[in-house]
Design a protein that fits this description.
CATH topology: Alpha-Beta Plaits
Structural class: alpha+beta
CATH superfamily: Ribosomal protein S10
CATH class: Alpha Beta
Largest sheet: 4 strands, antiparallel
Distance between the termini: 17 Å
Order of helices and strands: HEHEEHE
Strand order of the largest sheet: 2-3-1-4
C-alpha cells in the first residue's frame, strides 16, 4: 500500500538546457525575454530558470595593411560573443507543444540557439 502511494506522489520531469549566443547583446537579451515569456505549462513541476550569463568571448586579431611593405602598419579587429544559458524543467507530455512554441517564437536574427543535456528526473511531491 505504501509503495503505491509513493508512485502517485512522484512525477517525472524532463530537464534540458538552451544555450544562446550572439554577437549582438541587445538581440540576445530580447531572445531570452521571448523564451521566458513562452511559459511552459507551469503547474507544480514546470519551471524556467535563467537566463544565466556566461563570460563573453573576445577574439582579437591583427592584419598587415600591405602584404609586402610597411610592416609597422597594421589593422586590429575584434569580435565579441555573448552567451546565455536557460534551464527548462517540464513534464514529458508537454515537450512537443513547448518545442513548437519555441520554434515559432520569432527569435531575432543573429542569435544562435542550441539544445543540450536533456534528462529525465523524478520529483517527489
Amino acid at each position: 500500500m505504501i509503495k503505491q502511494e509513493a508512485e502517485y506522489l512522484t512525477t517525472k520531469v524532463v530537464q534540458f538546457r538552451l544555450k544562446l549566443w550572439s554577437y549582438d547583446l541587445d538581440a540576445l537579451i530580447q531572445a531570452c525575454e521571448k523564451i521566458k515569456s513562452l511559459d511552459p505549462d507551469l503547474d507544480e513541476t514546470g519551471l524556467v530558470k535563467g537566463p544565466y550569463p556566461l563570460p563573453k568571448k573576445i577574439r582579437r586579431w591583427c592584419l598587415l595593411k600591405s602584404p609586402h611593405v610597411n610592416k609597422k602598419s597594421r589593422e586590429h579587429f575584434e569580435s565579441t560573443t555573448y552567451s546565455r544559458i536557460i534551464d527548462i524543467h517540464i513534464e514529458p507530455h508537454s515537450i512537443d507543444q513547448y518545442g513548437e512554441r519555441l520554434c515559432k517564437a520569432g527569435i531575432p536574427t543573429g542569435v544562435r540557439m542550441e539544445l543540450g543535456s536533456s534528462f529525465v528526473t523524478t520529483l517527489a511531491s
